[in-house]
């Protein structure tokens, strides 16, 4: 998965509060809530919810199919935070030998690897490679065709 477009987050994102009704998915039949409860004036600002550190956050579009089993698809928008120290199992954006890639960071023994979410791509051992971590993926925005 390679970089398609890199967009820095706005340092002071404008507030955009959208309606956010209380909607709970129920597993089973336990009665029906009042429809009026769903519209009690709640709002959600995605900048407030997702962008924790605006000066360290950027958005990135991706290409490729190496992360599909981990929920990242061609054309998805990633929200990446440069201030988070990567830990095993984090999905990261990194520059590896001059190429920007999105992979899951793993340790196997004492050896760090970048692993894809597609079995067609082998894990990349980082022992002898030049790798610069750009940030940790905090969110994936996947649009459905309408």
Automatic annotation (TrEMBL):
Major enzyme class: hydrolase
CDD domains referenced in this protein's UniProt entry, alphabetically: S24_LexA-like
Keyword Cell membrane on entry: no
Gene Ontology biological process terms in this record: DNA repair; regulation of DNA-templated transcription; SOS response
Keywords linked to the UniProt accession: Autocatalytic cleavage, DNA damage, DNA repair, Hydrolase, SOS response
Enzyme Commission numbers on file: 3.4.21.88
Family matches, as InterPro entries: LexA-like (IPR039418), LexA/Signal_pep-like_sf (IPR036286), LexA_repressor (IPR050077), Peptidase_S24_LexA (IPR006197), Peptidase_S24_S26A/B/C (IPR015927)
Gene Ontology molecular function terms on file: DNA binding; serine-type endopeptidase activity
Presence of keyword Signal: no
Chain ranges of the Peptidase S24/S26A/S26B/S26C domain: 31-137
Homology family: Belongs to the peptidase S24 family.
Descriptive protein name: LexA repressor
Organism: Halomonas chromatireducens
Native organism taxonomy: Bacteria, Pseudomonadati, Pseudomonadota, Gammaproteobacteria, Oceanospirillales
Encoding gene (name): lexA_3
């Amino acid at each position: 998965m390679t970089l398609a477009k890199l967009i820095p987050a706005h340092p002071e994102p404008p507030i955009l509060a959208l309606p956010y009704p209380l909607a709970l998915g129920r597993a089973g039949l336990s009665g029906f809530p009042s429809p009026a409860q769903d519209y009690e004036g709640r709002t959600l600002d995605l900048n407030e919810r997702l962008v924790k550190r605006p000066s360290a956050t950027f958005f990135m579009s991706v290409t490729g199919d190496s992360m599909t089993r981990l929920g990242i698809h061609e054309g998805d928008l990633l929200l990446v935070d440069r201030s988070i120290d990567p830990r095993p199992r984090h999905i990261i954006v990194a520059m590896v030998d001059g190429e920007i890639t999105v992979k899951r960071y793993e340790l196997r023994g004492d050896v760090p690897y970048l692993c894809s979410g597609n079995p067609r791509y082998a894990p990349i051992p980082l022992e002898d490679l030049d790798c610069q971590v750009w940030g940790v993926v905090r969110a994936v925005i996947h649009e459905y065709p309408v």
